[in-house]
Amino acid sequence: MFDFEQLDKTIHERSKLSIMSLLSGRGAWSYQELKNELDMSDGNLITHLRKLTDVGYVSETKEDTGGGRPRTVFAITRQGRIAFNGYINALEEIVKLNKPD
Fold first, then answer.
1. What pLDDT is stored for residue 27 in this prediction?
2. Do the beta carbons of residue 60 and residue 49 sit within 8 Å?
3. Domains and CATH numbers, the chain
4. pLDDT value at 101 more than 70
5. Cα(27)–Cα(52) distance, rounded to whole angstroms?
6. Alpha-carbon dihedral angle through residues 56, 39, 47, 7, given to the nearest 10 degrees
């Protein structure tokens, strides 16, 4: 039997899993790119990004655009990559347990 406690509860939520998948696949994404790609509201996206940042899975940097507002960019951290890979490995284990021989 699989130990479901292995699933990272922070990543397991759909929106956070979507964010982590994007950041893991491509690297850094601007806030606006994430918002557009995930079709999330500002409030929803920033709430999930803050949680991922608070636990150390995602980093946030402000880039000077030379104009007015800085561009906010998010990237997966080393800790986030380890957690995400562990999460994916746990999912693969579940799939293996449920595949017929």
1. 85
2. yes
3. 7-98 (1.10.10.10)
4. no
5. 15
6. -50
